[in-house]
Design a protein that fits this description.
The complex is a heterodimer of chains A (467) and B (169). Chain A has 17 helices and 5 strands. Chain A has 467 residues and is mainly α. Helix content of chain A is 67%, strand content 5%. Chain B folds into 2 domains: 4-51 and 127-168, Alpha-Beta Plaits (2-Layer Sandwich); 57-119, no CATH class. The chains are: A mainly alpha (467), B alpha+beta (169).
Chain lengths: 467, 169
């Protein structure tokens, strides 16, 4: 067993107070009951918006289900929701594999986002029905599905997203088993019955703990491999392949990296509200925000790296194809959206998160995270709306000869966007009523492995890192 | 003679580890006693028996099956409908890679789920003796017997180590 002593200079990573295991179990299980009036009001508002969004999606499908040029905002939402809800569970995985102790209390919150994959799937259904086949009137458009049957992207992308959702749920469930046992032992009513049913006879034997660690590792690895793959499919099948002549090998990775940035931002926002309104300061320490802030800052810088790497190829290339793609994606009618997006997804967060004082706090961190998510939404709109605006009869051209008109959102598009975002927020909120928002056993493990000690004349936390 | 078990409950990890050592010294076979905890202690913290697991075999086996099936599916499809595209060979690996990757993942995940059902001993229909205080941080040492004559020996070991309470089932 290795150990490390982290010296403390200021409050943001002061030694966390030790809490008894029975207090942790009792207090965290109690967070699932007794929702406040404000919580219920927000749940109702988000629920109504979610239903309005789904109804709008159905109305839009029956109304313009045969015109792909009107579906850019739905495609942007699929990409946006995949980015936020798909990437957030990676926070539950990647730092744990690196034996980071700060992340233990927040892995549950991150993995709850797996359920929000349902919202992405709902948005994808009409889009798959509208996505043009590979071959139209004998002409095959340029896609990654070279020589494949006509409806390959439709089938394999849907399967990929379902697989991502399933793996995310298994990752969540694997890590939640001991907490279902805690609910069985200490909760009441339907939560106790649910805990008993889902705990599957968990008693905490050595074999059960060993296999729990292994399966979290395995599902986490699978989740990462599938997430990158689904980002690749969505960004190419629902983005690049809709625009004749847009060939960019960096774009799928750009899509994935900006998704990770959004995932971290989403977790920061959820963590901020859980900590504040569920009174979890005792368990969610400032150290978690400090560490997430560094991660968010690094990903914000990576965004500009990937964007520039992609942009410079087209800018230097200057072939008719390159110029058409740049006009379509950046310099054309979407220029204002692009500029505002860049400012919000990169420039403002960069100059916010660069300051240690911001990353040590919670309020500025949550503001920065909201700004990033708004920027990401605009970024996805400037990519996918023009991509889907290309008329069907131009999709097989060598390159885009005429930049299509911008399709501005109507009331249904606005309701779909609001509904999609609301559905993700609602799912995360409702899940906090079902299972403790912080993992009971991981908070107990955090306390087990981290002890405050006196270090020379200061104080430090001694963190055990079992191999 | 019916199998029965007893559970010694401890407040702290140290006496529970002493009880595990005591049971070994008293001649109880490995696998007849185990430790129950509400949080994962580092492996070997109680000097417990480390069983071999085969969990990694399941995803590996599933991935191989999925990969093989995908190669078969894509190859047979292309051979059954031979179309030369862009002057490339009929059996072009790059065109098959996406489906091969996705099917490998799909089978790997499904096999992992199956493996977990076997290796985690879940669902545990007969959890046996248990105490809800274990999820509050208490530590349980459970001993299972085929022979009633050893119950007193086990109780003695647990009491000597400092068990707060001993439950019978």
């Amino acid at each position: 067993m290795a150990s490390e002593a982290i010296a403390h200079e200021s409050e943001h990573h002061a030694p966390p107070p030790q809490v008894d295991a029975d207090v942790i179990a009792r207090e965290l299980i109690a967070t699932t009951t007794g929702a406040s009036g404000r919580f219920k009001a927000w749940a109702w508002i988000l629920g109504i918006l979610s239903i309005a969004g789904i109804v709008s999606l159905i109305v839009k499908f029956t109304d313009v289900g045969d015109d792909s040029t009107k579906w850019g905002y739905v495609a942007a939402m699929v990409s946006f929701l995949l980015s936020v809800a798909g990437a957030a569970p990676m926070i539950a995985m990647a730092p744990v594999m690196a034996k980071a102790n700060w992340v233990r209390p927040i892995t549950r919150l991150a993995s709850i986002f797996s359920f929000a994959g349902v919202a992405t799937l709902i948005m994808l259904i009409p889009l798959v029905a509208i996505l043009p086949p590979l071959v139209t009137e004998g002409a095959r458009r340029r896609t990654i599905w070279y020589m494949a049957p006509d409806y390959s992207p439709h089938f394999w992308t849907t399967l990929g997203l379902v697989l991502l959702l399933f793996t995310g749920l298994m990752l969540f469930y694997s890590a939640a088993l001991p907490d279902f046992a805690s609910m069985r032992d200490h909760s009441t009513g339907w939560r106790q019955r649910l805990g008993k049913r889902l705990a599957r006879g968990w008693v905490g034997t050595d074999v059960q703990w060993r296999t729990l660690r292994k399966r979290i590792g395995m599902f986490g690895t699978f989740y990462f491999l599938i997430l990158v793959f689904v980002n690749f499919l969505i960004s190419t099948d629902f983005g690049q392949s809709m625009v004749p002549g847009w060939r960019d090998a960096i774009f799928p990775m750009y899509h994935t990296i900006s998704g990770f940035q959004a995932g971290v931002a989403g977790v920061v926002i959820a963590l901020y509200f859980s900590r504040r309104f569920m009174k979890l300061e005792k368990y969610v320490h400032l150290d978690a925000f400090w560490s997430l802030g560094r991660l968010l800052f690094a990903l914000t810088l990576l965004w500009v790296y990937f964007f520039y790497s992609s942009f410079i190829v087209f800018w230097y290339g200057r072939s008719e194809n390159d110029i058409a793609t740049l006009n379509h994606q950046i310099k054309g009618p979407m220029l204002p959206v692009f500029l505002v997006g860049v400012i919000l997804i990169w420039f403002v967060p960069w100059w916010m998160l660069i300051w240690n004082r911001v990353r040590r706090g919670t309020s500025a961190m949550v503001v920065g995270s909201f700004i990033i998510l708004i920027g990401l939404l605009l970024d996805r709109i400037r990519i996918f709306v023009p991509a889907w605006s290309v008329p069907g009869d131009q999709i097989h051209q060598k390159w885009l000869e005429v930049t299509p008109e911008v399709y501005w959102p109507n009331i249904f598009d606005i309701l779909i966007i609001a509904g999609g975002i609301s559905l993700v927020a609602l799912i995360v909120m409702l899940m906090t009523r079902v299972i403790p928002v912080l993992s009971v056993w991981q908070v107990q493990e955090f306390n087990l492995l981290a002890k405050p000690i006196k270090y020379v004349r200061g104080h430090a936390t001694l963190v055990a890192k079992p191999d | 003679m019916s199998t029965q078990s007893i559970l010694g409950l401890f407040h702290q990890a140290e006496p529970a580890a002493d009880a595990m050592d005591g049971l070994k010294e008293a001649g109880f076979k490995l696998g007849t006693f185990d430790v129950l905890t509400g949080t994962p202690y580092p492996e070997g913290a109680f000097g417990e028996h480390v069983p071999q697991h085969r969990l990694f075999r399941f995803p590996a086996f599933g991935a191989i099956i999925g990969f093989t099936l995908s190669v078969f599916l894509t190859a047979v499809t292309q051979l059954a409908y031979p179309m030369v595209t862009g002057g490339k060979p009929i059996l072009s690996v790059f065109a098959m890679l996406i489906i091969m990757y996705e099917m490998t993942m799909l089978s790997g995940v499904i096999a992992t789920v199956v493996g977990i059902v076997f290796e985690s001993r879940l669902p545990n229909m007969k959890p046996g003796i248990y105490d809800t205080r274990i999820t509050e941080g208490w530590i349980g040492v459970v001993v299972t017997f085929d022979d009633d004559s050893k119950v007193a020996d086990a109780e003695s070991v647990l009491n000597k180590a400092g068990a707060v309470e001993i439950k019978h089932a």
